Give the backbone structure.
Amino acid sequence: MTALKKDMKIIFFGTGDLGVPTLNRLIDLGLEPLLVITAPDKPAGRGLKLSHSPIKEVALHARLQIYQPEKVNDPEVVDKLRQYHADIGIIIAYGQKIGSVLINVFPLGIINLHASLLPKYRGAAPINWAIINGEQETGLTVMQINEQIDAGQVLNQVSMPIDPMIRADELYTQLAQLGPDLMVNTLEQIQHGTISPMKQDPQKVTKAPKLSKSLAIIDWTLPAGMIVDFIRGLWPWPAATSHYLSASGKSIPVAFAQSQALRENLPAHVEPGTILDDFTLATGAGKLKILEIKPAGSKLMTWQDFINGRRVKPGDKFVSLEKNIHEKSICR
């Protein structure tokens, strides 16, 4: 039975799926936020119909008050929030930086659920970069928001191992499920005065910059294991990409969803990215077995289906048609 008191007044900031389980838990415990702040509705799909954020969907179902400001730090927004006389703000995957004036609206400040073990992986894409960099462990951190990005004092953490085959979308879901217990435990400690904030060690800070399609181009000269991590860390967006180049010279853009590094020696003098006799790929070190692939304009398919459909032959290649692929910012 939770020791959480139900008289805490909360305003919840969130947009993405990461915060959905935590918001649902607060509602189930009778700690419905006074207000849910989420991103404005955006056009989506072929019809460009306005689409709600996952957090708004939860708030609508629970009949909570919803506010969708374009700029959350605007003076009129801050004045509106001040009228709620909330004790604390909770922010999870909201998408806007919170300024000091807004932080000071709350007597207990604003606390943030961040998807890494801070001070590692500060930034917009901590889950992705943890996988790309081959980390074996990650977790969640609840921290006190300050004016610097992800630099506030750590209030609570939980860790978990990273499965060597898990993709970013799957790890995102796993971490989201850890959020409710960690947040409730943190709120209990705040209410009972037992919380022990810890400063982050600046010597241990690593970055998790925002992802982009320009960062998603595979460098086939890397070792097979690094390419595997790169592929699973970027799925489903922006998705690790390359071009399939057939013997006839036809080029097809493709994205990779899953692969496996093999501990087998490469034939001598084979260019990285070349499809070998056993239909594995040559890399800078070792062979790569493709498991799932998505040609542009087509659905996700198995590697065997791609081989059959495109009449793939040994000697065909995966190449980058973009320049300077070696300048990708892999944060190692």
Remarks:
- The first strand starts at residue 10 and ends at 14.
